[in-house]
Amino acid sequence: MALAALSFALMGASAKWLGNRLPSVELMFFRNIIGVTIISATMLRSPLHQTGGKPRLLVFRGVIGTLALFGFFYNLTHIRLAEANTYNLTYPIFIGLISALFLGTKVTLRQWIYILLGFIGILFIFRPNLDISLKNHLLGLWSGLGAAIAYLSINQLRHYYDHRATVLSFMISGIVLPVIGTSIGRIWPIPALDFLTAPFIWPLGQEWVFLLFLGLSAMMGQIFVTRALSLGNPAVVGPINYLQIPFAIILGLFMGDAFPDALTLFGIGLIVFSGILITAHSFAAPKKL
């Protein structure tokens, strides 16, 4: 999980640099095409070991994860790395809320307090300011909510599929949907939906190197986090993923981001604290979704 945190932070830094000229929808395509190529090669050398039987859940995980990624990548290219990564890492808070409200999980008063702390932290980042638009705030929240739904799906899929098949379903969806988005953006640009549709811009020079690094770091991060959640105790490995935030702050400073102000840091701290407590007192997932 620590390796996943570092990999995703490096992926975010690459996306931010590339986003100076290339649209986030296009970056998602390259993020996944490289990963699909490499994972497919590993499958030829080492066949998948799985029972299968849940194709619709596998497709659902891929699509919902990709839709969440649209919001995350747009924010990576438009706001500071620290806030973009923090919003994406609100997923344990949403997992707790979804489990309590929709999956019939019994939630104690203590667990409700942890969820409330997390949402208070979100409010400290969400507060109106001139640095982040409402659109970026809402896409940030969606990136966390969508990731929560995707991770709940992973928890179920681990009983039926090799972790590489789970990652592959996500990456294939992450190719198909951006292709649709760039096709629509070329024919009918919609500025308000530029996080979903944008015309393709051909990469130049060093951008190809950064695109390769983007794809490699994303693929390694996805493999590490899927493997960690499939084999390890989420209460132990989950909180380690919050290393992604200090990694993102450091990388952001090198790339010209301003250091987060006191209120934003307080909000980030509450979200991390809440996420650790929620994960440590993990909500039992239902047997079926």
What is this structure's SSE topology?
Layout: H1 2-18, H2 24-45, H3 55-76, H4 81-88, H5 91-101, H6 109-126, H7 134-157, H8 163-187, H9 207-231, H10 234-237, H11 244-254, H12 262-280
Report what the structure shows:
With 289 residues, the chain is an all-alpha fold. The protein has one domain (2-280). Helices cover 71% and strands 0% of the residues. The chain contains twelve helices and no strands. Helix 3 crosses helix 8 (163-187). It is globular and about 55 Å long. The two termini are 25 Å apart.
Descriptive keywords:
71% helix, 12 helices, mainly alpha, disordered C terminus, 289 residues
In DSSP terms (H or I, runs of 4 or more residues), the helix count works out at 12
Integer count of domains = 1
Percent of residues in β-strands: under 5%
> Which residues sit in consecutive blocks of at least 5 with pLDDT less than 50?
283-289
Which structural class best describes the helix and strand composition?
mainly alpha
Number of strands: 0
Rg measurement, Å: 18 Å
